[in-house]
Design brief:
single chain; mainly alpha; 2 domains; 0% strand; Prepilin_IV_endopep_pep
Length: 262
């Protein structure tokens, strides 16, 4: 499959997955079933018709309002769907039609859900994070076998341990990391470790850099203070994807600063 058809297929897949992620984002923090009942309006309980359940276009067709009671529907729904599609396309462009692609598409999907949930309720649900370890191992296994990437897999596992130890130390400090961040760190370490140690370093550093910058802006705008709780999961995930997409050029740029060329 050439690049363009792959990107189109992945974009459509991302829209469909994004629609499901909206269900995950709403129901998982409330401990509700992902299967029953069917998608419905939170205001009046009316089931969403199939034609209105088409990602992005359903919301546009309804003009952002329930077909039954005309209660407003948050624009976050189409944004999650479109954002997932864009992230899927970016991942597909990064990895191409490779053995690793399904594993990183899965990471993209759970990253969208976890980031939004953490922003909503300041929690990274175990129901998403913990099963993702098994899923990651299963999805990366074909790459290990087909490419005989045993040393790469070993590095990924070691990187998971390294990030866990680092976050464990931070969690033990006063006002340290939350339990959800601690559980997420090894998973991101595994994915970044597969790409290389420079990706691990960049992903970990970028998380704190991005989180610190946002916290500083919020304090300048008086939207937060030194005692405010700020969800860190979104910055961990953003830092990880920065490393996925730009880890190599960032590492080369940094190396050039340390050893300038003549």
């Amino acid at each position: 499959m050439s690049q363009l058809p792959l990107l189109v297929v992945v974009a459509l897949l991302g829209l469909a997955v994004g629609s499901f992620l909206n269900v995950v984002i709403y129901r998982v923090p409330r401990n509700e079933s992902l299967i029953h009942p069917r998608s419905h309006c939170p205001a009046c309980g009316t089931e969403v018709r199939n034609k209105h359940n088409v990602p992005v276009f359903g919301w546009l067709l309804l003009r952002g309002r329930c077909a039954a009671c005309e209660a407003p529907i948050s624009p976050r729904y189409p944004l999650v769907e479109a954002g997932t599609a864009v992230l899927f396309v970016a991942v597909a462009a990064r990895f191409g039609l490779s053995w690793e692609l399904p594993a990183y598409l899965y990471l993209a999907a759970i990253s969208v859900a976890l980031a939004v949930i953490d922003l909503d309720v300041m929690r990274l649900p175990d129901k998403i994070v913990l099963p993702s370890y098994a899923v990651a191992l299963v999805l990366i296994a074909p790459a290990v076998i087909a490419e005989r990437s045993f040393s790469t897999a070993g590095r990924a596992l070691l990187a998971a341990v390294v990030l866990y130890v680092g976050y464990f130390i931070l969690a033990a400090m006063p006002r340290g990391m939350g339990g959800g961040d601690l559980k997420l760190a090894p998973l991101l370490g595994f994915y970044l470790g597969w790409l290389g140690w420079s990706s691990v370093a960049i992903g970990a550093f970028a998380a704190f850099l991005l989180g610190g910058l946002v916290a500083a802006v919020l304090m300048l705008l008086r939207r937060a203070n030194r005692k405010s709780r700020i969800p860190f999961g979104p910055y961990m995930l953003a830092g990880a994807f920065l490393a996925v997409f730009a880890g190599a050029p960032i590492a080369q740029w940094y190396a050039s600063l340390l050893v300038p060329t003549v």
